[in-house]
Structure to design on (447 residues):
């Protein structure tokens, strides 16, 4: 982890109210020309781009695969992970995938392991991929931006508010340096969502008054505790179930749907209230996170979005969004469906994917095209503010309290410890019976 503590300044200019409502409603990211002389060092033209991966799990390996396919003149030169076995497994898979193209050239001395490995890998590259558990993202992003690197980073971009402020500060520096930053909220790069956003901006459904966003599924993996495993290693191997690393599934997964609401409405929520708990995933292997959340987000325009996410096997699965406007209704999902109907149920617009580009691949295609053309994609601010929206939802369900954005963004409650080593004690530890303390509405401090 980085040695400098996250800032606790007020950062009034980062308040939700300062964000322009008209920000790039129908684009994947803000595109700006970057051809002045001070920016020429970022225009790579035909230069071979050096790529570094920080976080060698499945998502990181997939992101590198997509990055290497996005540009003909690029090579992976450095990798970093907390665990050597994950790094080695990822490298072996990538070497096999790209054995013909010779795009994977990670020398032994450029394979870095440990909590501070990210710095060494980032230093080797022109472009970095940040795909560790999200608790580490603010420090990694800050270091990459200060080092002048273009960045792809997965969502969410933080797990606590001090981390959000760190990302927002680094986002400003990235813009000043004319660095490209793409955040893995891939629906903004998915054709059916882009088409609907265009229709909304053109006024086809009028003003959005309400909506429902869903990520209901059966849940994710668990890695059993191993003999002689330290508590730190156990939590790192099971990062999804600990808030300092993951932020709960309302943040890690459901952020996608919350981000769609923010995008389509053109605003970020001013408040949240809701409820949640653990009914099915109650074992010690499920750490401290909830298995269901329900939140009402209120927006400056008066729109109210009902948000629900659930990890409970045997229940209704649904991942998608619906919105109600003054002139019509919207339906979208990641399977490629997109449609508008008027208030009488007549079709206004329909779109169904037919061999559309993979949005995960499109993120990297656009990133490297922008780098080559001397343009700038600036996703970091939106990534931070949609992450903050989901954190606000978690605050509401954990506390049972009404959460206001302008108060929440000032929180100094830091979940991620500084200067971690394998001998560090994690910020949450199990009780004598092996269970972890669970957030309790009415008692848990969230701000």
């Amino acid at each position: 982890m980085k040695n400098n503590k996250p800032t606790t300044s007020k950062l009034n200019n980062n308040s939700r109210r300062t964000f322009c409502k008209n920000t790039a409603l129908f684009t994947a990211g803000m595109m700006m020309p970057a051809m002045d002389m001070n920016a020429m060092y970022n225009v790579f033209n035909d230069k071979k781009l050096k790529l570094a991966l920080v976080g060698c799990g499945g998502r990181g390996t997939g992101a590198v695969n997509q990055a290497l396919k996005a540009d003909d003149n690029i090579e992976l030169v450095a990798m970093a992970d907390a665990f050597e076995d994950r790094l080695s497994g990822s490298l072996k898979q990538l070497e096999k995938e790209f054995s013909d193209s010779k795009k994977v050239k990670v020398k032994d001395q450029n394979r870095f392991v440990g909590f501070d490995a990210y710095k060494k890998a980032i230093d080797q590259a022109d472009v970095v991929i940040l795909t560790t558990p999200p608790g580490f993202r603010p420090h990694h992003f800050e270091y990459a931006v200060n080092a002048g690197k273009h960045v792809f980073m997965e969502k969410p971009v933080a797990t606590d508010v001090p981390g959000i402020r760190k990302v927002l500060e680094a986002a400003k520096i990235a813009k000043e340096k004319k660095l490209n930053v793409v955040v893995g909220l891939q629906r903004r790069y998915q054709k059916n969502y882009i088409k609907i956003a265009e229709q909304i901006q053109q006024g086809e459904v009028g003003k959005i008054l309400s909506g429902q966003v869903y990520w209901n599924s059966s849940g994710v993996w668990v890695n059993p505790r191993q003999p002689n495993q330290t508590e730190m290693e156990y939590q790192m191997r099971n990062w999804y179930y600990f808030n300092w690393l993951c932020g709960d599934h309302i943040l890690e997964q459901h952020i996608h749907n919350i981000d769609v609401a923010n995008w389509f409405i053109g605003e970020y929520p001013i408040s949240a209230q809701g409820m949640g708990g653990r009914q099915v995933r109650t074992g010690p292997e499920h750490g401290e996170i909830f298995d269901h959340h329900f939140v009402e987000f209120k927006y400056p325009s008066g729109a109210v979005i009902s948000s629900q996410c659930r990890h409970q096997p045997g229940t209704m699965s649904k991942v998608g969004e619906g919105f109600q406007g003054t002139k019509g209704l919207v339906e979208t999902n990641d399977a490629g469906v997109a449609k508008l109907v008027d208030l009488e149920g007549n079709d206004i617009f329909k779109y169904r994917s037919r061999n559309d580009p993979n949005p995960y691949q499109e993120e990297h295609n656009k990133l490297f095209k922008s780098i080559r053309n001397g343009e700038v994609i600036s996703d970091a601010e939106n990534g931070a503010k949609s992450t903050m929206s989901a954190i606000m939802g978690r605050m509401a369900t954990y506390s049972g309290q009404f959460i206001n954005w302008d108060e929440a963004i000032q929180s100094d409650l830091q979940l991620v410890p500084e200067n971690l080593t394998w001998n560090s004690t994690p910020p949450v530890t199990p009780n004598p019976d092996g269970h972890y303390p669970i957030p309790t509405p009415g008692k848990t401090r969230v701000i």
Q: What stands out?
A: Residues 380-399 form the longest helix (20 residues). The radius of gyration is 21 Å. Residues 27 and 194 are 7 Å apart (CA to CA). DSSP finds twelve helices and 17 strands in the chain.
